[in-house]
Each structure stands twice: as C-alpha cells, then as structure tokens.
C-alpha cells in the first residue's frame, strides 16, 4: 500500500486532531503518501481530497474540533453515493482509508468494503464512549471534564438557593458521560439509558435527603434516558412531590463536544491514530483500533457495531451509597 487517506466523520470529538496528526506523521515516517478528505463521506463523494504533509498537522495536537471537518452523510448511505466516492478515490489512487468516527462511520466503511474492496481501519472518535472494542473513545475524557466543570459551578447555585438541579448531559444511547461526571461531581443520582431508574426511586432519594436535612441535590440525566429528558423528568417529579420545591433544569448540550482535549485524550488519540495506520499497513481491514487494558487491539467493525458496551452497574450502586 502506497497511498492512503484519512477523514473524520459523525460528531466531532476533542482529540480528533491529535489522531489525524498521528495518522499523517505515521504515514510520513513509513514513507506513504497521505491524503486528507474534508467533511467525511461527503468530501469523499465530492472529491474534496488533498495531499497532506507533516507540516499540514503542525500545531493541532491541542486543538478541539477537527481540521478535516465532519459530517453525517446521508448520500453515502445510498449505492449511488458510494459509487461516486469510489470513483473519486480511484482518481486519487487511494488504496486504503483511516476513518475516525463512531458506529455510523464504521457501518458506512463496511458497506464500502463489501462493494468496492477498499480497506478501512477505524479509530474510535466520539464523546459518548459507546463503542465496543475500546475502554475509552477519543473525546470522552474531555467531555466528562467539561460536564464536571459545569456541575461544580451549578452546585454553588444549588447550595446557595437550596435547589434541586437536573443536569442533562450528552449520550444519545449511553450513560458513560453521565455516570463519570455524576460520580466526580458528587451527584445524588445518575439516570442512564442502560438501567431503568423509575421516577418513584428519584422521589425516594430526594425525600430521604430532605429527612437528613439535605437542602440541595444534583441529579445527572443522560440525554437518552428512558424516563424522558431532564425537563420531562423534573416535571414528573414536581407532580409526584406536590410541594413547591425549587427545581431547575440545565441542559449542557454541545459545550461538551468542543474544547481543548485533555492530556489523556491527546495521548489516546495519538496511540489510536498510529495504531490504526500501522494496522492498515499490516493488512488489517474492517477493524477498529482500540485500547483495552492498556493494550492496542483491533476489533472487527461488525462487533463494534453490533455488540453493546455495558456500563459498570457497580458505579451506579456507588453513587447511591455515597449520597447518603
Ligand atoms: O454522538 C455524539 C453526540 O454528541 C451524542 O451524544 C448526541 O446525541 C449527538 O452527538 C448530537 O448530534 P448533533 O451534533 O448532530 O446534534
């Protein structure tokens, strides 16, 4: 393999730039031609492809977002879109791809290989940490720290005004950000999509706190929580408690996706970028590079897509114990 390309796809995540840098510098080190594709699969379809050098990735290791930009491409999900993408890759002579993204990205790469035989190795880039095959994904640690900083600030107001705050964090189908930021932020309860927390349990927890003279509480809610979003949950609780308790809801939203990546994310991203590149060079295809128990491993896309990554329920138990 002489010529490869790298792209980022799906939601951006802090550390993606450090990953791009590792792919590009690794390719230069190993004597490969390396191209960047802008805006994920959309750029592949439109031929938004350019040659990169060591210099193209100078001064980006510390930057959030992605210099290659990102998109969730609907067109690539059609056979016509993939044909256009293949024609563009042919035009540039690209023989292999490094995809930095999540499950949607890897689903696209699998279809593409089945139809056109272009091998892809993935690097897990998503703040949600919901990918099987790696202990942590690129961006998760930064997102948790961003959420934590917000929780710490909100706690000051919760305490000053004797309020209950419901803080909604990201995680479409996953409670990883909620549980980590909730534990670190000393939340009274964490609600995640993976484990049902009935409203009655939330009410009980709050009442138990009041009986112990607890005057403020923080409840962290993951975006994908089954009982509804943080506003809906707060409303249900207001109805059940039927008192004029002072409640507020804060949705942290996209502030969790941006920002300077933590040292942990930069190091993980560098390791996964180089690991993905060297995997591709060694003949790996349709796999995602991951770090499990501090070892670099490759997991087939079909498993990262299909298999759930369960949260550690013991951590939820700990939240309850530590909030007495
Ligand atoms: O997958 C990462 C994520 O941040 C999810 O937690 C969230 O549901 C989603 O992306 C939001 O996507 P968008 O930026 O397209 O609204």
UniProtKB/TrEMBL annotation:
Activity modulation comment: Allosterically activated by ADP and other diphosphonucleosides, and allosterically inhibited by phosphoenolpyruvate.
Residues that hold substrate according to the record: 126-128, 163, 170-172, 223, 248, 254-257
Family annotation (SUPFAM superfamilies): Phosphofructokinase (SSF53784)
GO terms assigned for molecular function: 6-phosphofructokinase activity; AMP binding; ATP binding; fructose-6-phosphate binding; identical protein binding; metal ion binding; monosaccharide binding
GO-annotated biological processes: canonical glycolysis; fructose 1,6-bisphosphate metabolic process; fructose 6-phosphate metabolic process
Subunit structure: Homotetramer.
Listed name of the protein: ATP-dependent 6-phosphofructokinase
Organism phylogeny: Bacteria, Pseudomonadati, Bacteroidota, Cytophagia, Cytophagales
Gene (UniProt): pfkA
